[in-house]
Specification:
By secondary structure, the protein is an alpha+beta fold. The longest helix has 48 residues. Helices cover 51% and strands 18% of the residues. It starts with a helix and ends in a 26-residue tail after the last helix. The relative contact order is 0.08. Helix 1 runs antiparallel to helix 2. It folds into 3 domains: 90 residues, Helix Hairpins, CATH 1.10.287; 48 residues, Roll (SH3 type barrels), CATH 2.30.30; 85 residues, Alpha-Beta Plaits (2-Layer Sandwich).
Length: 286
Amino acid sequence: MKLILDSLLAEWHAFLLVLPRIALAVVVVAVSYAIGRALGHTLQKIVRRSNLPNTHGSFFRSLAIWLCVFLGVLLALNMVGLRTLATGLITGGGATAVVLGFAFREIGENFLAGFFLAFSRPFKVGDLIESGDMRGTVVSIELRYTHVRSVDGRDIFIPSSQIFKNPLINYTRDGLRRFAVTVGIDYGDDPLAACALLSAKLRTVEGVLDEPASGVVANGLLDAWMQLEVFYWINTFDDKNTVGQVQSRVVATVRETLLTSGYTVSANTVSNLALQSTSALEVSVN
């Protein structure tokens, strides 16, 4: 029993001897973190003053913090006498990276994908994008995810790896976007004349661009009508003419033009047949 107590007492004295160095090591790590935050904040401010997107600032800020903390941990391990462990972290960095890579594969994928997206810049805040089955306006861009808001107001956070690996549609990169409206006319009407008439009228609609040119084509023969497709281009950067406003004007113009010009705007109608009963047929058997 006395041997155990003596051993515990010796360990306690050894701990008291190294305790100041442990406290100093903790201070070193804390100071390293503070330096990393300050350096990262400075880099982020520099990026904001340049033409680079804010995502680059977030990346450099995180990189500065992690590098300073890593160096602080190495210095702290040396201070408490764990120089062998510190050396192993450096020399075995490759193996450590592999182990951590498997353990945090998805997190690492998102950070790495966010890094490449930050520099390739396929979209920016305010763009309308679609990735997979998710679509919305970009609210913010982070390294791990992109925050988009759908048309119905849902906030969607798309992982960076999903955007990086899947096809990405940017509807507003150059401000040009094409829309289409379909309308039916009666088989007794002239489809070519209707197409020419509507094409001329489209040029007068506010918000419809002259270039690229709009147009109308007859693209279907259905059961009850001939189908015309009216397509037009708009500038999505024009705040005075939103997508919904221009679309409403186009629909109203198409309807008014066809009706005032004597065309029959057809719909999917169902013919009702009135069945009339006749008097019963008398049959006589001789």
